[in-house]
């Protein structure tokens, strides 16, 4: 499929890097930090108990569904309060966790592909997660990063896609949203009027109840290849049109 793309919005977790190993490592870092600085909390809340408490707080606070940072802070405050440790430790504990959460290992294709995409069109990060591209080191490739916490609503809500398009100064139909999640990225992006690209690294089957994305690739490299071809084809057509006009 060939269509013009003026800008790209990209999901982060499981699109540019795998999130599962990041979270396992971040939880282990937090556990070790608590063992050192709040041993009673660490004893009362091993890693599995921390996960269960965070899930419980997320369920009790649907108003924070878009805000993983506040969910995590509330979890830490609850843990410290219940164990009798100093509540002032919640912020440095979160800082230790969040630093590890931003220590991601990119998919092998990601950095080179992102550089190629950014050389063609403006890129914007559009994520429900709370990763910080400045800490991660990818911010120079992006025009901006818009998170669900900052915006106030999470994907697949159309408003977060529209907010990104407004900042890019393009109509939704001129923007391609790229991500791994069928509901959040593909269904959400399509519902907001954007073109969509599904990054399907695990060869999953597309569910029949949803219209297919405009594009489907297994890597960001394949997307960069497609954009290169599309841009070249458009340049050839534009050049031919100018030649025809001059000859006329």
TrEMBL record:
Pfam families, sorted: Hydrolase
Record-listed E.C. numbers: 3.1.3.-
Listed InterPro entries: HAD-like_sf, HAD-SF_hydro_IA, HAD_sf, S-2-haloacid_dehalogenase
GO MF, any single term: hydrolase activity
Highest taxon in the source lineage: Bacteria
Keyword Coiled coil: no
Leading EC class: hydrolase
Keyword set, alphabetical order: Hydrolase
Protein name: HAD family hydrolase
